[in-house]
Write a structure and sequence with these properties.
The complex is a heterodimer of chains A (about 110) and B (about 110). By secondary structure, chain A is an all-beta fold. Helices cover about 0% and strands about 55% of the residues of chain A. In chain A, a hairpin with a 4-residue loop joins strand 7 and strand 8. Chain A is globular. Chain B has about 110 residues and is an all-beta fold. Chain B is about 0% helix and about 55% strand. In chain B, strands 2, 4, 5, 6, 9, 10 and 11 form a seven-stranded mixed sheet that branches. Chain B has a four-stranded antiparallel sheet with strand order 1-3-8-7, with no helix packed on it. In chain B, a hairpin with a 5-residue loop joins strand 9 and strand 10. Chain B is globular and about 40 Å long. The chains are: A mainly beta (about 110), B mainly beta (about 110).
Chain lengths: ~110, ~110
């Protein structure tokens, strides 16, 4: 089966840095995606990793270690608008549908 | 700007009626579209993969006769919830993928069945 684990909830302070972890055990691996989803809205694409290492995009960075089945999303200089759910998703092969984790609800407090 | 549109964004219907949800690709041709369902505070659950010009592939546990999918063109896929019941109330989202592995979700359709 396919299994993707993320923490259910996290709280962080405005201006700080937060790291959201994702571990996966899947039958194959062909890329990992991170999405942001605000309540009542569709997910928004944040990042895509298929090779080991860090991908940086503004305040957001995503890291992948394929040997460990591990990824994290790093959010810097947190803003109140970053309060949302963050979804980790894995594609197991080719163009197969993504397998989504349950998401991490991040609350940014003043 | 948005590359995927969904219509309607919100629908309320009576139990037993059918509801059609459209997903349109605005900027590129999508040979494959994915339909998801999301219940409150739950993750996205894949319902089916919609392929242009052929029958959709449904995930285990999803009734193909209840959730009819038609992908008649490279820019349009429709999901019809037939004989809707209150337990079908959910957030329905389509997703498209371009040739660069970038993912685009539609804005979603909130279905409420009374």
């Amino acid at each position: 089966g396919q299994n993707i684990d993320q923490p259910t909830e996290m709280t962080a302070t405005e201006g700080a840095i937060v790291q959201i972890n994702c571990t996966y055990q899947t039958s194959g691996f062909n890329g990992l995606f991170w999405y942001q989803q605000h309540a009542g809205e569709a997910p928004t694409f944040l990042s895509y990793n298929v090779l080991d290492g860090l991908e940086e995009k503004g305040r957001f960075s995503s890291f992948l270690s394929r040997s460990k089945g591990y990824s994290y999303l790093l959010l810097k200089e947190l803003q109140m608008k970053d309060s949302a759910s963050y979804l980790c998703a894995v594609r197991t092969s080719g163009n197969t549908p993504l397998v989504f984790g349950k998401g991490t609800r991040l609350s940014v407090i003043a | 700007g948005a590359v995927v549109s969904q219509h309607p964004s919100r629908v309320i219907c009576k139990s037993g009626t059918s509801v059609k949800i459209e997903c349109r690709s605005l900027d590129f041709q999508a040979t494959t579209m994915f339909w998801y369902r999301q219940f409150p505070k739950q993750s996205l659950m894949l319902m089916a993969t919609s392929n242009e010009g052929s029958k959709a592939t449904y995930e285990q546990g999803v009734e193909k006769d209840k959730f009819l999918i038609n992908h008649a063109s490279l820019t349009l896929s429709t999901l019809t919830v037939t004989s809707a019941h209150p337990e079908d109330s959910s957030f329905y989202i389509c997703r498209l993928e371009d040739s660069y592995n970038e993912q685009f979700f539609g804005p979603g359709t909130r279905l409420t069945v009374l």
